[in-house]
């Protein structure tokens, strides 16, 4: 093959696949001025997950050098430019479609747990700072009458609490009030990044990372 062709590759930090036979096209984005090269490279086998049940770890960390090695095995004269991650994770996840009843049961359980947890947290906070006594004192100070426990202060507090929660989380159902990510989305992204970094470092220290000179068995060197 004539030289001087450049292939640009880009890998995300974490990739999920739904079939045990993983090719370069399943995990890597590619671009090349020569349109005949990319389809050829995308079909190259990268690894195979031999254990596809819940008793085995269907996850492997891969060095980008392994990808470059596979490309050079097929096209030794191309120049590979990496524009993405230097190490990434591939997870095999068999797609399982849960039934309608199971899905709605799980949804109802999550809603109930979230509702009860939030309600308990709010009540614990109000009890800790003695909000009812504070409102009673404010009401008596402003009106000169004893509070009966349910006044305009309690009503506006409840309304303000709901508005404050919706504003803070920037989310109601499927609707977002602004284009900014919600605090929950930010925390989940930080959590995912920490998990991915830990997994890659763990695989690397235990020498289980799929790297140059290793076999193509998912997480098990040959």
UniProtKB/TrEMBL annotation:
InterPro entries: SporV_AA, SporV_AA_N_sf. Gene3D superfamilies: eubacterium ventriosum atcc domain (2.60.480.10). The keyword Zinc does not apply. The chain crosses the membrane at residues 107-125, 149-169. Residues 5-95 form the Stage V sporulation protein AA domain. It holds the Pfam family SporV_AA. Keywords: Membrane, Transmembrane, Transmembrane helix. The keyword Membrane applies. This is Stage V sporulation protein AA. It comes from Sporofaciens musculi. The lineage of its organism: Bacteria, Bacillati, Bacillota, Clostridia, Lachnospirales.
